[in-house]
Each structure stands twice: as structure tokens, then as C-alpha cells.
Amino acid sequence: MDLTQGTEKEKHDRAKKMMLWFGIVSLLMSFAGWTSAFVVSSSREDWLDGFKLPSAFTVSVVLIILSSVAFILAKRALKSGNRPQTTTFLIVTLGLGIGFIVTQLVGFQQIIELGYNFTGPTSNITMSYIYIIAAVHILHVAVGLICLLVVIYNHFKQKYSAENMLGFELAANFWHFVDILWLYLFLFLFFMS
After folding, report:
1. Residue 56 confidence class, pLDDT cut points 50, 70, 90
2. Is residue 2 part of a domain?
3. What CATH number should be reported for the domain holding residue 52?
4. Is the CB of residue 103 less than 8 Å from the CB of residue 59?
5. Rounded to whole angstroms, what are the CA distances from 130 to 69, 82, 169?
6. What span, in angstroms and rounded, lies between the C-alpha atoms of 161 and 163?
7. Quick one: 39 exposed, middle or buried, by C-beta within 10 A (0-12, 13-18, 19+)?
8. pLDDT of 4 higher than 70
9. Which residues pair with 180 in a beta bridge?
10. Domain range holding 24?
11. What confidence tens digit (pLDDT) does each residue in 7-52 have?
């Protein structure tokens, strides 16, 4: 496919999609680096073996998967022209995303209650990695929530339709990326801790 072909709008849309994918690839590289460092550091003498992730992190997996399903249903409703259903599923996605962040914070509290802090005398390298990986992911979910709020605002302004979905699709793709990323990180930490 010749990227120089098409109308100005088509070229503009392709450029925005490519920018999103470049951003996603760079984020993947960052998280690949942190998980690789986690694996390399696990051979240290001070590594904490056998740590079980907090139960709140398991709940957060369910919430984030459900949020992706809700976003998919919102997109399907928008394509079929059902604006009220689109609104409902967007609000559900937002609520589940907020619920994800809340359960992550509860998970951090559970780690602290076990006696592990990010820094200081009760910290260790294992827990520091878990804190960093989960916290940086939470920041990306927060960015996803901001994108979702923009989508909801634009939806109320009736800027999206079955023929004009670029902003909606970009936000949805980023949201699904952070969802899949957390599933990977959770499984990685579950099996590697």
C-alpha cells in the first residue's frame, strides 16, 4: 500500500494511527526492559523468592478485561448508530478503569501490610521492581482514562459516527493495549515472583 495515496483525510488518519503504534512499540520496549531486569535480578542473593501477588491485583485483571469488553461493545454500538448504548458502554468502561486503579492501590496497601515498602529498611529489590512496574502501568491507565474522558466528551458533542471514528478508535486501541499489557505483567509477576 502506498502511504502517499488517498485523500488528505486518509493520509492524516494514517499518520495518527502510525504515531499511536510508534508510541505503543516504545512503551513495549520500556516494559520489556523492566521485566528483563526483573529476571536478571532474580539471581541476586537478596531476592525474595515465593512472593504471592496481592489478591487485589487478581481483581484488577478481571476489571481491566471487562473494561476492554465494554469498550468493544461501545464501538459496536457506535457503528450501529445506537448512541445511548454507546454512552452506557463508555461510562461502564470509565467506571471499570477507575475500579482498576483503585484495586491497584489496594494491592499496594496489601503489600505494605505484609511489611514491604518501596524504599527504606523494609524494602527489597523484588518489591521495588513490583512497585515500579505496577505504578508505571497505573500511569498509563490514567492516560487511557484521560483519553476515554475526551472520547466521552466528543461523543456527547456528537463528533463520532460510523463514518468518523478516528479519535474513538485511537483511544480504544490504546485502552486495549494497556489492558493486554497488564495481563502480561500480572502473569509475568505471578509466575516469576
Report:
1. very high
2. no
3. 1.20.120.80
4. yes
5. 27, 42, 31
6. 5
7. exposed
8. no
9. none
10. 8-192
11. 888 888 889 999 999 999 999 999 999 999 999 999 999 898 888 9
